Amino acid sequence: MADLFAQAPAVFIAVAFAFALIIGSFLNVVIYRLPLMMQREWRDQCEELKSAPAPDLPEGDFNLVVPRSRCPSCGEPISAWQNIPVLSYLLLSARCANCQTKIAVRYPLVEFFTAVAAAVCAWRFGFGWEALMAIGLSCVLIAISLIDVDHQLIPDSIVVPLLWVGLLMSLFHPLAGAQTLFIAPREAIIGALAGYLSLWSVYQLFKLVTGKEGMGYGDFKLLAALGAWLGWQALPTIVLLSAVVGASIGIAMIVFRGRDRQLPIPFGPYLAAAGWITLLYGETIKNAYLDMFL
Q1: 163 shares a domain with 291
Q2: Which residue has the higher pLDDT, 242 or 50?
Q3: What element of type H or E holds 237?
Q4: Residues 141, 275 contacting (CB under 8 angstroms)
């Protein structure tokens, strides 16, 4: 099988796309359930300290494995044929088979874009460990982005292991020839430290000047994780891309949609998108910038 993938890149890209559709389906579960699991834990901790009305959260066994996927509206379990990535959404005409409630289009979109991201990584890196790790990073960044959009938080249970995996990968640097992944341990460690401290410093300065918190600690940890994966040299590209895209979208939302300027805008998705682009084309972007201005 390995020889087939190595000799026929198109086959590897197709397999990566199909497999990532399944991963995307699981990411929908992570995006929905993990914040609820965290809120349940916080509620239980708060109830130990102070008696207060409990929020409306799922009871009983509830994690990323159990219970079976259910319709959020009627609670009916979703059968296997109703859970086929993208295809089931089309076959069901975007409605629950039991209560006919409309299914949010985001579910198939997450599955589809996860598959597209995996296919792009397979095409960019070719068959090997670099592609596998890039696909894994892409899936985690998708989950982090949508959780941050929904709840404006980046769970430590996702971003901290991502940081450690990035540092662990650096130990295999001498065994790999890729320029983007498996960077040297020194670059990974400095990247993690510089990634965290750079945004932390901006946060502290903004808070000192305005008295307000401009971003969350999850953003610091996410940039630290990206620094551990891609090295400290990639951080300026990531920060610049995320700042430009974030500012553009934020201004557009204020101007065209009348969004309140006081409402917080999650920064995690912009960091994640910038990190993914840098993963694929960081060296090309850096060289183009240097050629343009130097």
Answers
A1: yes
A2: 242
A3: helix 235-257
A4: yes
